[in-house]
Amino acid sequence: MVSRPTFDDVCAAHDRIRPVVHRTPVMTCATLDEMAGHRLFFKCEQLQRVGAFKFRGASNVVLGLTDDEASRGVCTHSSGNHAQALARAARERGIPAWIVMPTSAPAVKRAAVEGYGATIVDCVPTLEARESTAAEVLDQTGALFVHPYDDDRIIAGQATAAKELIEDVPDLDVVMAPIGGGGLMSGSCISTAAMLPEAILFGAEPEGADDAARSLASGKLIPQTSPDTICDGLLTSLSERTWSILRDHLTAIVTVGDDAVRAAQQLLLERAKLWVEPSSATVLAAVLKETSAVPQGSRIGLILSGGNAEMPRA
Amino acid sequence: MVSRPTFDDVCAAHDRIRPVVHRTPVMTCATLDEMAGHRLFFKCEQLQRVGAFKFRGASNVVLGLTDDEASRGVCTHSSGNHAQALARAARERGIPAWIVMPTSAPAVKRAAVEGYGATIVDCVPTLEARESTAAEVLDQTGALFVHPYDDDRIIAGQATAAKELIEDVPDLDVVMAPIGGGGLMSGSCISTAAMLPEAILFGAEPEGADDAARSLASGKLIPQTSPDTICDGLLTSLSERTWSILRDHLTAIVTVGDDAVRAAQQLLLERAKLWVEPSSATVLAAVLKETSAVPQGSRIGLILSGGNAEMPRA
Question: Most buried one in A134, A148, A160, B141, CB count within 10 A?
Fold first, then answer.
């Protein structure tokens, strides 16, 4: 039995990170409401610092370290939003960060991490190389490894997004988030179950990385192999920790194709002026696909997870 | 001597429109702060309903009509955000709206206005044709003409954006807005002078439509002829009404070239995940051009006016 954070842990995380995170706005759009047949409340984590909710969890870990622990620095292997989030959280505390990154990572992502003052450690682009390179870094530096989602402190940090959403919109019928490794969704489950026990929890997942949907259908954790989707934030597999939380709380997972994700991303930009990455657009695509899964006119909170997509030229 | 709205009018407008407008968020971005050497607070009116601050003024007019006045409907000539705003405000009250629009207006703008249930009245694309066609509509329908900015009720409505900004960030040193016809800027002057009498007021204007800057430099109203800029929301000339307010309150107007506007628009998207139209980006371009016009570390409120630009393909 793996551990899981409690709502008290979430509240403690919120108190810890409140001075450094943005309290992101909750936006509505009458046109999208009409299309969905529901009232939609978008929690705008793409407007979070570093452009994604990941800054919440990373800050909770970094700010929760003792001075002695912190002085050793932190390390992770990632080329995504967690890498930027950890690098930035470390800089805020003035401690070193080592980010193990495959040589295949886009230059813009390397530049972002370096811009936050972290040290990039190159490795070849395989999971084995990432893990063995990270192990070498930990060995040489004594840094603490910070997993992107398989960590109670990370989950408690991510849970503060749903907590703020429910504080701002206290009568939601449904709370919905994208599922990759499950950190955001499992955190959303913990906050929602504590604050709105009657609310329904839905996940959104790309068809090309639907390990959580298949796990929920079969009742046991099925890892993701060879994901294939434009939702580059949702490629990873659940861990036992996040799976055990999702299994206990989720009513359903809606899977959506990449075309529907692209259309939802465009709708958010054109109709709501919100620029998000494809992973974030899964939640709107899911609501527009399954409009009758809940009674018409339901009040649905959707967490937009991030905005770090390749930029259109303005 | 033309009339001008008082801050009491602004407060009354705010009470009137509060149920129908979004209280838009104020966002910050540490990276842009570093670039500017100041603390920047972006009032996100691109996230306002219809995608622009114009919905504030239009709603103030429409909601302020008596039932008898309202039953006759409203009319304007515009192909821009004011047309959409007036159409939508009219629909909310359930009254007719006639929008005189040149046949050259983009199909997407016509579709937006029609989508809000207004009647489009075609005219040839000259100011004379717009005005004569509007006069015919007024004559035939008895509708009330609603000017996009030369109207105390419109200015009082637009002034509520700066009022909310200052309520949220009560210790600003500078308030800044783009200048087209001057409705948003003159409203911002009235709210700021009443709420933060020590604050400095700056305008931002494109070099290719710099009638306000030339007017301020010469001390008398100089109309805009043949504007040439990508800032399609800022092509119009000041009126005596808006000019008289700007003249009394503005410290300076910073003019910016279209290249600087494009760069600022891209920065807002890439670094702050905020998608705005070029007219809005003038304020950031101005701050980045004139970083030393105010002491380093000044707290600057910038009103992002709208987000209705041609959309990049996500």
Answer: A160
| Contact residues, chain B, for A266 at CB < 8 Å | 311, 313-314
Predicted ipTM of the assembly: 0.88
The overall pTM is greater than 0.80: yes
Query: What confidence tens digit (pLDDT) does each residue in B231-275 have?
Result: 999 999 999 999 999 999 999 999 999 999 999 999 999 999 999
- Residue B237: its pLDDT value, please? 93
- B163/A126: higher pLDDT: B163
Structural domains in chain B, CATH included, are: 7-52+151-304 (3.40.50.1100), 55-145 (3.40.50.1100)
Name the residue in chain A with its Cα closest to that of B20.
A30
Question: Closest Cα partner for A152 from A299, A9, A273?
Answer: A9
Is A313 a residue whose pLDDT tops 80?
A: no
Which chain A residues are within 8 Å of B25, Cβ to Cβ? 25, 27, 44, 47
| Long-range contacts from B109-114, C-beta under 8 angstroms, 24+ separation | B109/B79, B109/B80, B109/B83, B109/B84, B112/B84, B113/B83, B113/B84, B113/B87
B126 pLDDT band, cuts 50/70/90, is confident
Kindly report the average pLDDT of chain B as a whole number.
95
CA distances to A44, A67, B91, B143, B279 from B113, in Å: 28, 59, 11, 17, 20
Interface check for A169 against chain B (CB to CB < 8 A): the answer is no
Residue of chain B with shortest Cα separation from A23: B27
> Who among A25, A270, A307 is closest to B311 (CB)?
A270
Chain B: nearest CA to A106, how far in angstroms? 16
Residues in chain A with CB shorter than 8 Å from the CB of B274 are: 47, 275
Using a CB-CB distance cutoff of 8 angstroms, which residues of chain B are in contact with residue A314?
Answer: 262, 265-266, 269, 275, 309, 312
pLDDT digits (tens, 9 = 90+) for B4-57: 999 999 999 999 999 999 999 999 999 999 999 999 999 999 999 999 999 999
Q: Is B311 on the interface with A (CB under 8 A)?
A: yes
